[in-house]
Amino acid sequence: MLKFFARYKTFAIVFFILSVIIIFCIYTLLKPEERLPVYQPDMVNAELVDSTKQYVRKYHKIADFELVNQNGDTITQEDYKDKIYIADFFFTTCLTICPIMTDHMIQIQEKIKNDDEVFLLSHTVFPVTDSVPVLKKYAEEKGVIDEKWNLVTGDKKQIYDLARKSYLATKSTGDGGKYDMIHTENFVLVDKDRQIRGFYDGTDPEAIENLMHDLKVLKAEDN
């Protein structure tokens, strides 16, 4: 009996290795490719969406925009053409969630600083106080890399419309105030076609890990 097993030992080892390879290949072929959803307004909490967009079910994209960054440069959708980017809404004097969100954006910036496909875009919700010099000072204090991350200010109505009608990311105050928003913690992942591919809690480290995972998934879709 021992001679029998000795004779077929090599065959058994080879057979086992081939079996593992075959099973792995079958699993790989049958496993569905991971893809991110394309978010439409009707898929998002209605509180975050302007009433004119709440029932839109397809073809939603980020609208054209024209804002000014921390260096006084005009920033439009053309600066993000064929780019993936992460957007959020903040203000420089916020003492609650903004510092945490900014710290997480800084962490993301560090991870993507050598990635030519991925950029960051932060919109102030208080443009009346967050002027270009204020944004510049804030950017310098936080270590913002100008080539990777734009902090933008501009017309309040335009920023409001972007937040509520395009990024589907912030609540209205609900008090009838014109173009007033309740600042929220949402980070928004936008693909090269200006479509929303994910929402993340910018104050939650685990959510940031999920964002980085989804970023890899999104990049794989383009390759």
From TrEMBL:
Transmembrane segments: 12-30
Pfam families: SCO1-SenC
Protein family membership: Belongs to the SCO1/2 family.
Residues that coordinate or bind Cu cation: C94, C98, H183
CDD domains, A to Z: SCO
InterPro entries: SCO1/SenC, Thioredoxin-like_sf
Record key words, sorted: Copper, Disulfide bond, Membrane, Metal-binding, Transmembrane, Transmembrane helix
PANTHER family named in the record: ELECTRON TRANSPORT PROTIN SCO1/SENC FAMILY MEMBER (PTHR12151), LINALOOL DEHYDRATASE_ISOMERASE DOMAIN-CONTAINING PROTEIN (PTHR12151:SF25)
Disulfide bonds: C94-C98
Organism: Christiangramia gaetbulicola
GO molecular function: metal ion binding
Official protein name in the record: Protein SCO1/2
